[in-house]
Write a structure and sequence with these properties.
Helix content: under 10%
Structural class: mainly beta
Strand content: 25-35%
Number of domains: 1
CATH class: Mainly Beta
Distance between the termini: 29 Å
Largest sheet: 6 strands, antiparallel
Radius of gyration: 16 Å
Strand order of the largest sheet: 6-7-3-4-5-8
Number of strands: 8
Amino acid sequence: MMATATKSRSKKTTGGVKLQPLGDRVVIEREEAETTTAGGIVLPDSAKNKPARGVVVSVGDGKLLDDGSHGQMQVKPGDRVIFSSYAGDTFQIGDQELLLMREDDILAVIE
């Protein structure tokens, strides 16, 4: 039963690598930053703020509870979320930049 839930939660990313976070961790793909202002000024990479929004790529099994069971995750793959600016660890797979963070660092789900 648990193996089936784990398989359905992971998603393939570039390069055919499967990511399955552990516990209450979540893998997020950050949304692209705006490259031009409302007035039409093109911003260089150094002037862009990294958005604190993204899409959930995969989720773990949930936080391990005192009784040995796993708590249910509140987000699922495909959810668009807002997270705190300095949350998580950034890593690269191929040309894709991903974030690994705890579910607690996610502030809201965008519907």
